[in-house]
Write a structure and sequence with these properties.
Layout (H helix, E strand, L loop, with lengths): L3 E3 H17 L25 E5 L3 E8 L6 E5 L10 H9 L3 E5 L15 H4 L12 H4 E8 L6 E7 L10 H16 L11 E4 L2 H10 L1
Parallel strand pairs: 1-6, 4-5, 4-8
Antiparallel strand pairs: 2-3, 3-5, 6-7
Helix pairs in contact: 5-6
Length: 212
């Protein structure tokens, strides 16, 4: 069986990695402070809430809809945050869903410690690959699609982040799972324990990894 991965996905990851690398330069002698979160989201009018991921990492999220509604988690894409879902979260709530939207770690009002810092690397979902050999971290002879959908190229695909950043699909997938377990399920009806993920861009890749 072969795996088809759109070629634009790898280009997007590399571009995002370069931006994260630029934004996460560590300034020695200064300690990192998470962004200050306003009480209310200007985009949605909803209360900004904080989930302390694994006890130390600030994750901003918003929630709307009835307590007994089916839970839905909205996972944003590249260069945005949970405010991206400003229309979707209100529409879902109006239809009776219990809708949650979070800022991925490193985005929006969530914590974004410098990528090379000990604090950030402690959360790196790719830690299992750091000392792995090439046979483990490189998928060989993978079918890569193209934007037009008309061609197929065979390439080897490396599983590690190209810049070693902890801001990657594996880390975000762990956050999504933890968020669903720690926040969504406890704050939903006991009769609604299944969570639906609605996602976009890098949120899609992270959500797919979360459900594997």
């Amino acid at each position: 069986m072969t795996t088809t991965i759109p070629s634009f996905a790898r280009r997007t990851l590399v571009s995002f990695a370069m931006i994260c690398s630029f934004l996460s330069i560590q300034v020695h002698g200064f300690s990192y402070t998470p962004p200050k979160v306003p009480p209310i989201s200007v985009a949605t009018g909803l209360k900004n809430q904080i989930y302390q991921w694994r006890g130390t990492q600030q994750i901003r999220y918003q929630v709307d809809g009835p307590l007994d509604g089916k839970p839905v988690v909205l996972v944003h894409g590249l260069f945005v945050n949970s405010d991206h879902w400003r229309k979707t979260i209100k529409a879902l709530a109006k239809e009776g869903y219990r809708a949650f939207a979070l800022d991925l770690w490193g985005c929006g009002y969530s914590a974004c410690p410098p990528r090379d810092s000990e604090e950030a690397q402690a959360f790196n979902g790719e830690a299992r690959f750091l000392d792995a050999d090439d046979d483990t971290i490189i998928l060989k002879n993978i079918e890569l699609g193209t934007a037009s959908g008309k061609k197929v190229r065979i390439r080897n695909v490396e599983l590690k982040h190209p810049l070693g950043s902890p801001y990657n699909f594996y880390t975000w997938s762990e956050l999504i799972n933890d968020f669903c377990r720690d926040v969504v399920v406890p704050h939903s009806s006991p009769n609604e324990q299944e969570v639906t993920l609605v996602c976009n861009s890098i949120g899609t890749m992270s959500s797919l990894q979360a459900v594997i």
